[in-house]
Fold these 4 entries.
Entry 1:
Amino acid sequence: METKKNIFDGRKLFFYAVILIGALVLLVRLFALQVVDDSYRTSAENNVLRYVTQYPARGLIYDRDGELLVFNQAAYDLMVIPGQTADIDTTELCSILEIDRDAFVRKMDEARVFSRYAPSIFLKMVSAETYARLQEVLFKYPGFYVQTRTLRKYSYPSAAHALGYVGEVNSNEIESNPYYRAGDYIGKNGIEKTYEKYLRGKKGLKIYLVDVYNRIKGLYQEGRYDTVPVPGKNLVTTLDIDLQRYGEKLMGDKNGSIVAIEPSTGEVLALISTPDYDPSLLVGRIRSENYRKLQGDTLEPLFNRALMASYPPGSTFKPVNGLIALQEGAIYRNYEYFCDNGYYAPGIHVGCHHFASFNLPQAITASCNAYFCNAFRRTLDSPDYESTAEGLTKWRSYLSEFGFGSKLGIDFPNELTGFVPRASFYDNIYGRGRWNALTVLSMAIGQGELGTTPLQMANMTASIANRGHYYTPHIIKSIDDDEEAVDDRFRAKHEISIDSAHFEVIVEGMKGVVNGGEGATARWVAIRDLVMCGKTGTAENPHGPDHSIFVAFAPDKNPRIAIAVYVENTGFGSTFAAPVASLMVEKYIKGDTENKWLENYILNPPEPVNSEEENAGEEEEEEGDKEKEDEEEN
């Protein structure tokens, strides 16, 4: 019995000890809260914590020579925490913000739907003047505060398609990347999108103590839990802004595109798509309205023709077909073919305007349809292959080495692949074994089912300029002055399995296009003291006048620029595209244009816009496919 009593007394003492220790812990903690840590005393005096995101400065963007293209300016968002708001003078606040009461009520309702206790944007991007007025009276409006961020600013109203734009994140972007929160901004297109992770930097955070009058009383815990924003990295692009602006000037109100590349590196010197727009239109509170207007414009100024428009390449494709025929042994440099005003085969006639015999360089210079139809047919029907389908497959494999039929991999979103048909494409249409070289003969002169982008044609031209290789086109030269930070794939050489000696034959013919004599299709755009090699072409357009095309590189040895120019609905290649390319090449290499007559011709074109040289030499190459009669199986 005594033993049981002792056990009972021991348990009672243990129980009292636990209560005593617990009480002492609570007293110590209470003392710390009320005496030692004055931040809690501050909170007790009706203070609340405010978490304010510190947005970093977005990285700057420069051209290849260090010219500043894109920078930042301060902007202010009015934030609200609905759960902290009280009865306020909405008349005064609406007057300062220049909104009506209905708009105020609607924005408050939207904020409450988002959260009663988390901050959200009440009004985006208020002006500096409005911000100054708000600062004076903001203490009257509990739950409201201003958050600073930056907006993009542009040195020139140029290069919109290359630079891209920044916009507010949508729900999909928030779901796919935990870095972003509602109200954040992200690169939506162009360089801004591709290099978003470098440009955006890293957000910071400040925690403030705020009293009931919406006044900041200081940093919580003296900033112990604050983080500092990390600015975005600066980018140096490969663009030459002077060349870019000059190209945009030449294109004026014409539709089309220009892509200029440095052959030795793959760096994009100019990327122009017209019609274009001033990039500053997509900044600030006017962005949404302007975007709707641009999106609704029937001329499609938001559409990047340089990367996303697919055209038949026309006669600018003849140099590639010539290279393939040489490599396959279907022809050789001095192989001659007589053009009798076109190419004739059973049931088919492809028109041409020559009555003469040409070797390969001469056929390129004069752009003879008949010569290339014959060379193409000999290539596909080579005795080395069991069928035309096998010959077409081999022909297509060469084109893929130039980058046709797939994305080149430029550092831009939305690049188009173009289209180079496979043998299976014709099998599905005609049946296996029921088609031949004559069925697809239009591709000999760059027509038919072929589809290429201006970027691909500029890259093809750079490949010829390099005599058999290219570097993936790209638009960033360095990141924070570190060239090694640029993706290694842009330094990889892409070799083409065609003998370099064959490229010299093609270069000879392209040299004659601009610098040759009678019959050369673009001799009127020759540049004094500079040898430019080029090729005219016309893309057929079923919806109206044909598109003028010209590809070129210069100088002929150690070339510094390769270019493709497309001017829609302006006819022959030498009418508009060739002069534009010539002026661009001269501008880049010489620093200025001496041929002011040619410049004036482009800026103030005569009516009708046809050159004498054009009519003398180029009609045959562009109109031939239109005269093509119904094809019959051979």
Note: The radius of gyration is 34 Å.
Entry 2:
Amino acid sequence: MSDMTNPDEVVTHARVRLLDLPDGAGTMALITIDNDRDHTRPTTFGPGGMASLDAALDQVAAMTEITAIGVTGKPFIFAVGADLSAIGSVTDREIIRQFGQMGHNVFRRLGEMDVPTFAFVNGAAMGGGTELALHCDYRTMSWGAAAMSLPEVFLGLIPGWGGAWLLPNLIGPANALEVIIANPMQQNKQLKPKDALRLGVVDALFESADFLEQSIRWAAGVVNKTIVVPRPEPDRDSWEAIVGIARTMLDDRIHGATPAPYRALDLVSAARTATRDEGFDAEDEALADLVMGDDLRASLYAFDLVQKRAKRPVGVPDKSLARPVTKVGVVGAGLMASQLALLFAKRLQVPVVMTDLDAERVDKGLEFVRADLAGQVAKGRLSQDKSNRLSALVTGSTDKAAFADADFVIEAVFENLAVKKQVFAEVEAIVSDTCILATNTSSLSVTAMAADLAHPERVVGFHFFNPVALMPLLEIARAEQTDDATVATAFAVGKTLKKSCVLVKDAPAFVVNRLLTRYMGEVIKAVDEGTDIAVADRSVDPLGLPMSPFNLMRLVGPAVAFHVSETMNAAYPDRFHVSENMRNIVAAGKTAIWVKQEDGTFIVDPDIAAMLVQGDTPLTEEQVRTRAADALADEARRMLDEGVVAEAQDIDLCMLLGAGWPFWLGGITPYLDRSGAAERAAGRRFLVPGVASVPK
């Protein structure tokens, strides 16, 4: 296992101490896992950490006087699993298989002791940390624990230390598949403590202030048999039907684009009848296969971008230049503006005022905010008191004079340059000389918006993605005259809003919309030339993108998509296609290409089919996919040459967080390298550091 050793690994120590259980329940051996040489890093398990836990289990196994064994973590962290930085560098399949066996052999000891074992999940538990808890007989969790998950599928792996067998046999296949597949496929969704209890992953929740004391008291009750934890047998009769439904949903979602979720599904399916040994052996083989594939390395690169580069954006002025923001103005009270007002109030917790042309529009925006807050109260995500305070922060007016004392005003009005210029002129006449003027434009020139202002240096692009609360990306566009203080303030605000911010040059459509518009233009052009709409729509299925082209258009809205295509065509007429078919679809008021039939299948809207004017040169799915990939490669290379972003990694980060580009593709530029599109379209590869293939 020497090839698995990471020289940077902070070896996990497992310390043992004896505790007298209350109520005469005997003595507990409590193991605390802690990489105590570095309190800033979550506890992970490499070979050294695994050996440390194994030695601690040897110690407690020799104790004849104990009546229970407990495992807990250092403050705020239980454990977060394997040391992925070491795993991703291994090129020998057998080493990975042995590492999987090591984890199984050590962790399973907790489920095979002569006394009951307890996991006291005091903080974040992810991957192998969650599996460590699952090997114990019982689990408690702190209400203050940040999250619990089995995120391996998100990274191109499977739960490899028992989770794929233990969890379905504990909570049934439906609940297990929610944790193992559904949540990771939703941008690595985490379980909150109440979710872990609802699903049956943990047995009890206790407040964080005295979590360990309460857990030990609860464990004493279990030992004394005054507390009985029900363990209903999973419904094995419907097991395969549940797996079958999950497989269909997975096919609909990713079309076989990556193997990890399918391998995980196979393991859960087999767990219905497999013995523990058989289940663990199957996990070892699946883990070894997947680590040898490209998807893991691509995912690790993407994960590193999101965890590191997104938190340390490139090219940003010193944060000391940022100005305080004590009040925010939002121009507009439509859906996007209302979402922005709610987000600013929740995250900045400062007064936010919305304006619009009439009281009816303003009232509608305020009602959106109140309804959203009420919904969060109803779901238990927000207290009534907190909701009341947030609601009081958001007010409305038909007079822009309400912005007089604002430090930050963002416009979210109709995507028209003349309208936005007029808005900024009106706002500038009211606000202070240092108030930031931000635009949520998705495609228009920020420089042009600021051109006629007395202080163009305080105008900045602040482009959110819809839905605002969920999409993590914020493109911050620096116009030609934007000064450092404005950019620094924009990034400080974006960070407080809990968004991942990327600095972009003021160029048409910035990054995400520019690439998506070019990509969509190629697909639509193929339809105009004679390709069947269904063929064009299926063309990118092998990539496993979140949406097919025409479903994406339905989400954005054909009118918006067509308007952006016109804007981009005006800037780059040789590359961005404007479709007369799309013009006619928008003119007809159509909002979706597909209509649902009585049998549940979808067909092209007959009205749209009747109005299509197509050529006679249809393409195959592969040809459409190749054309779209080549266009993306060409546009990405041009953006780098133009300095729209600092490096290719920023393009990848924007597409991961703003377009849902799958992690297993490793960002868009590594995919364009692997597919050959970069060399075909741009003459050279992007070659971002940190992405490598396993030698074949």
Note: The mean pLDDT is 93.
Entry 3:
Amino acid sequence: MRVKFRYLSVLCVVAVLFCFSGCLFRLETPTLTYNNFTVSWSAQNNANSYEVVFNGESYDTTETSFNYAPYITTGKQTLKVRAFSGNVFVSNSDYTDEKVFYVSETKLTTPASLIAPHKDNSYTMSWNAVAGADMYLVSLEDGQGNIQYFETTDAEIEIRKFISIGGEYTAKVRAMAYDVSIYGPSAYSEEVVFDCPLPLNTPENVKLAGNTLQWTGVDSAVGYRVTTLDGETIETTSTSANVSNLMLADTTVFFVQATSSDGDRDSAYSNGIATFEQNTKSQYASTKFDFLGNEFDLVADSAEELKSLVYYTLLYRIENMQFYVDYLTNNNARSDAIVEYLREYNEIKAIDIRISFSGELANLTVSYLHVSTPNLSATGEYTTVQNTAVPPTTYVTSDNKRSDDFDDFAIDTRTKTALVFTSDQLYYALQNGCKPIFASDTCPAKVVYDEAKAVLRDIIGNDMTDYQKVCAIYEWITYNTVYDHNLYALSEKLESGSNSGSAQATLSRYRGFYIEGVLLDNGQAVCDGLAKTFVLLCSLENIDCYKVSGLAGEGVNINAEMYGGAHAWNKVKLVAGDNESAWYIVDTTWADMSTYDVIAKKYIETMAHEYFLVTDADLATNHLETEPATNVADVEFNYYANTQLGQNVMLDLYAENYGDLVSMLLQAEGERLDYLEFEMSSTLNDKNTVYGYVRNNTSRNYSIMNSGNVYMIVYS
């Protein structure tokens, strides 16, 4: 009892102190930094939010920055900030000193001639440029009254990437000058109202009763399309269909798509529903199915065949699958093997499973919690831009460019085929040597396939070697895609929670993990989307390529421990230099040299070739395949040693000594090159020494950066 009373006495003292002093601690007052129309401050210890008072109006935020562009008027403007505490023992900070500035009464001209976003302009809103404007602020309001603001320095903005729900939207824009003492912001333009549709909902509760397939109706659907994995299709306006003409003698898998009046809003296909006509093991053994151009039966007599059955189930999102497992001796071992292959399947997924056995016959039931077709683009505090001062160099010249209607792509020589609905099924079929067959012209796989063809018409010429094609593809992805740091931040936040399945289900909705992020979202993606797109573009030219999954980070292989984060990159097979055909590594995510502006929260990416056609040994300290390597990349090739500098055919981009470096610098000066990318020999690479040689042999203004042995100089 004495111990309890002693603690009570301490609490009483604390209570008394609190009553007399109000609290024990006070938060520090934030220190503000201004950059254009954004005020920023560093996070305050023990603060859980911040109050920004702008022109007398109070705005609460949990972020450490605030964009006041939407709220600027003309005349006197005032701003102050304080930190809020959620702790009774810590008081709020004092307000910062009030910033006072004046905005000119002379307003910029209001943007006019707004063109509403619609499908034919890729949902891009545009307007007449305003003289004196440095940027434009776009207000976007959805049908539920939620308003978002976006900045752009161009007189247009692609709205689709900011939209996450269907329905009606209202947009308007105002022009702004950074020097508000000269020009005040314009008034907002007239509003434009538009409908930016997302696809119809996917049909659910698909069931097969006898010869009749049934499903739940979808709002706004004008009809439905029933398709089998053999590519057979029937269409109906009802929510059921007699499928007796589609049923095979053994096993048939059905999918249902809701169709729209114009085809643009056709839904994703439903999960697969399978029917099994077999009664005996011998009938299952005689039942064949095609998976990525290879034939299997429904009796797994090897680990490879069981893996194919499981992968087949997951790739096509089949809800119920039956097969025999006869190479293992008991059902515990059989169940463990199935679960292992379910786990090993390397795409973004969240599933619930149920496995039961009737003797050796396995009944696998899968509930798919992840979406088949993503519809979200990540937004957040980070901005990433490409440094256009370092452009691609390997694109086809205008003299040898393919025609706008060119469609004779090398992939058409492939003999193996696979039916695909989604972009993930497309890339997976391509990397396994198949030519795709599309379930419909409106399925997501066909949309990105056509977009990829358009890219290759622009950058590839038929007289190019496979090496030149791969280099052009590498440069296109690197230059036209920026890493989606907002999606990465979201994934880090979700995956740090306790429910990884819920995190994967949520993340599956974001296009940055897929080809859609690269080709349809103005080049906003993370490593998975980049690696899948590389497979698609290479495969259209019939160049063998596949996505590698593993871990990446500095020191990833130290002491054989697996450090670093999940990552995806590629291996591609081609002839490089004088070598015979061999496998090489390409990493388009790590290809950019990236710098970060802390105040503006802006990443700037500069294209480089450090991760173009390298070996497993080259990446031994920072990349680790989590599965045994299917193909070893062990043939040396050096892009820099095999690329000439400017007009000098005798000088390459690899410096074996400092004399080579001086020659490069003088050549760049003589030709007045805009930039110089080169590699130093690892035996003499010293950053300070290299920077010194650059300084002493360069007469122009320049900026310089490096990643390991690779350096980039951008002249101005």
Note: The longest strand covers residues 75-85.
Entry 4:
Amino acid sequence: MKKTTLLLLLLLAYAAHAQEEMKTLYQFEVNHAFNHIGYGTDDLTASYVASTKEVTVFDNKDGKIVWTKKFKDITDQINKIDDMFPMGSAGLIFVIDRKVGKDKMVCIEKATGKLMWVSDKFQDVDSQDNLVFFRDSEEILITTKKNATLIKMRTGEVVWNTEKYKGVTADYALGGDGSVILVNMKEASQVAKMLVGDIASFASRAASGFKNQIVRINLSNGEIIWDQTYRGLVEEKLLTKEKLVSIKIKEGKVMLFMKGLHVFDYATGKPMWNAAYDETPNAIMDYIKKQAKFGSLGMAKIADFGAYGIVADPVIVDGNAYVIDMVDKRHQFVKKFDMQTGKLLWQSPEIKDARAIPGMYVEGDKVILQVGGLVEVQAVITETRVGSAMSGGGSSSSTAIGTAEVKPMNVQCFDANTGKQLWESDKMKKGITNLFVENGNVIVCSGKALYSMNTATGNENYEVPLKEDNISEASLILPFNKDEVIIIGEKGVSAHNIASGKLRASSRYKYSSPVRIGGEVVFGNHMALVTSGQDYAVYDLPSMTYKRYDARKGAKAFFSDDGKWLMVYEGGGLMRNSKVTKLSTE
């Protein structure tokens, strides 16, 4: 009787939390596999899916297929493609057919499938990073390891060419005066080799004539107004390929954010000052690798690995720059610089033994640091099976994004005027997910409890255990609607009042991680969790309810900007058809 009662209670609890499936707005099958997906926020009227030999374009609103064509029927100059780059707001698709020394670029009109042009002038275009799209002029700058060429995208006509700028463009910023600032980087494969100390790659890099360049170019004629080198190596994330660099132009200065801050004079390119640190010490990376967790993948061998967010980005406030200086694996400081002169205004006391400082915030006259805690890790995982090939033996590779917990962990506060340490809290010494500053308080999570601390004193306003949330251990906290904090757990989501810490609502789900698009997690009032098997739960945060959709493993999904619908792309194969599904999240 007791067992029956317990089972009934469990079934009732499950039923109370059971969530309905997302409503299918449309779903259609594609008669070919696809490994290229064209979806973007610039142009939501149509999307495409493509294999190496065939492409289908469909209307985003109703899912009707606009056209399907084989590439050889669009032009007899290619039979297959190796890569595909959409220019959404221009209504064009660029495809590449790669053959050593005989690459061909093809431009197709997305609305009709009409061939615009074919050219063999552009060799070694390895990725979309080789293309810089200038929307107003409808021109594209194609940058390779040999040169840079500006073309008119609808005709392929060359406007100008220069061999004075080379390499993949990592980031760029328009100057507003007809010129552009570009920063280059080496191709991803060679960067990866250099990061693990491949001496031959360094030699190849030097022999190829490649150099770290930040340049200002006149877009009308290709004139190099100035050309400077920068210190360090531009990295990109292992799996998501996000570039860990950005450029901003402000008050006559070019600011290059890359492992600290590099400042150049906009007019002349002259280096003004920099506050940059060297590569993360190998000892720290080895430590983080040992702490890495990838959900349900277990103890498989890590074949390739990257860790990100180890050091917080510089913060610029009121004409001053606050920068974390990682001198070596055991000596770290916060430094404050005058943005106009680069003069060091103060250096904080040593932040002893820190392996990671992933968060820095300036609030009024206080500088808040998160020392240690969770950092993002990405990896290629190799799983080995015992037995012969016929019985399922051998090995396979998969990719995974997870977290690593870096110790020691604490929160520190410094006087923004003097650099003097005001307080330190080791309340989170057993765990920190992340923190943010809101209305004079530090909101921080240990994974098992939510805290609010006064920025002036470090005194606790509250400590709220998260056991009642029933979402397992927390992995991320986010501010929401000004008065709430959203807590993303390993198995669900909850919402607390920021001022009191009181739990408003929570909803449990399976072991999962948040869907990130462009670095964002929340879209309107919605956010999504995805399991390793591509099961999706899209939450309505005000009601803390979710709707679900179980996709095939390997599927990809994209949110609308308002979070009201989700596109899911499930590629096919020999035994199953490809399909595209648009789902309502409301």
Note: DSSP finds five helices and 46 strands in the chain.
